[in-house]
Structure formats: C-alpha cells, structure tokens
Amino acid sequence: MQSRVTLNHIGIATEAGNLQLNRLFQLLGITRGISESVPEQGVDVHFFNLAGEPPHLELLEVKDPEGSVSKFIQKRGAGIHHLSFQVESGQLDSTIATLKSEGFRFTYEQPKMGAQNMRINFIHPATAGGVLVELMESTQRN
Fold this sequence. Notes:
By secondary structure, the chain is an alpha+beta fold. The protein has a single domain, classed as 2,3-Dihydroxybiphenyl 1,2-Dioxygenase, domain 1, CATH 3.10.180. The protein is about 20% helix and about 40% strand. The protein has an 8-stranded mixed sheet with strand order 2-3-4-1-5-8-7-6.
C-alpha cells in the first residue's frame, strides 16, 4: 500500500456530561477545540488539541442511547474507543479496497460522513487485533 497515513486523533467514549475528563484536560493544559454533533453516530464530538497539531483527543459524548458508542460503553465501559488515521486526499477508497483484499472487514459497506467534514470507515476490531481503527479522508480540497 503506497498511501501515507497519519494519526489524526484518539477517540474516547464517554457518557454525556463527563466533567472529570473535561477538568483533567483543562488542568493538563489541553485546550478544547471545535465541537459538533454527529447524529449518524449518536454523539456530540469535542476535539481537544495537543500542541495545536494532530494527533488530537476526540471526546465522543453519547446523545443516542441506541447508537454504536452507547452500545460500546454498555459492553466495555467508557474509555478509549478508537484510533483514527487520516489517509491522503483521494486515497480512502483505494486504501479500503487494498485492506479488504487482505482480509480486513469494515463496519460500513461504503464510507460515511463523519465529524470535521471527513469521509470515514472503521476497520472491524475482530480483524485488527481487537482495536477499532478509523480511516478518514478530508472532503475539502486544499
């Protein structure tokens, strides 16, 4: 695979209103960046900046008790949910195709829209050593 990827963020699943984690970030000097609602995932996402550049921390605040993040918390508890890698622009589909040809399974048949105007898909943890891995690609042209 020729695509270059970078760690964009670490997703952390949390119940709504997790004040402890917000306070911890504040005390450590980790500044809060953008927040937005992602109804398709049943969450509000809050990005926290580490020195202004990726990787970031992404707080996934549950809003839909039937959503996948809520189900994750019910099964495993709050905590690290996924690692997110950003692929180069225009490379998401070919990266997914290559990984599928090598036996990796994805949670979606086709990429979906995620936070920050990104196309996303997740590698199923059963085929990635127990880790949920998100692949993301910006839909904005530079």
